[in-house]
Structure formats: structure tokens, C-alpha cells
């Protein structure tokens, strides 16, 4: 009789182990918030493997959702770990506000004036 090979130890780590039992982030970042690090290569002795992956990914701006997907961790865990990294000054997060996306009123008036002249 042929038996299935032993799959070995499981690579699954429970989310609560990654967050040290925390279930809510210190800051609630939206999915589209951009995470980035401007620091050179860090001494990663204080970083977990997941945090190190986040830092490596965020050498380019990445959304919170993209970080979670690429590191293959649940979104809630990603938010907690990103918040921890922000608290330590390792990454920064840019959250778009309404003033960031709202066009300048004077520009709109100039465009409207130009359209009227046509």
C-alpha cells in the first residue's frame, strides 16, 4: 500500500500571531492609502518577516490593499503591521483628502471662461 508523502510542518501562521493578538489597527487606513518608505536598507533585526516584506515592497508607493495582496496577509493584519511601521518611522502613509482631489476654483473659472469664448 502506497502512502501519501508527509507534507512536513505547516507554513500557516495565524493572523493573531502576526499582530501579537491585536485585532484593530492604531490607525485606520483606507484601502487606497499609499504606503512608502524613503529609508535606505534597514537593520531588520527588529522587523518580522512580514514587516520586512512590507518595507521591501514599499520602496515604491503601494496601496494598503496592494501590500496585503502581495505579502499574502489579510487586510486587517496588513493595516496593523503598517500602523506599527508608521509608529516606528519606517514607512509613511499618504491618505488622499478631498482638498487633494478637488480642482482649483480659479482654474475651473478660467476653463469656463475659455469655453464661453468658443
Automatic annotation (TrEMBL):
Pfam families: DUF742 (PF05331). It comes from the Bacteria. InterPro entries: DUF742 (IPR007995). PANTHER family: DUF742 DOMAIN-CONTAINING PROTEIN. This is DUF742 domain-containing protein. It comes from Agromyces intestinalis.
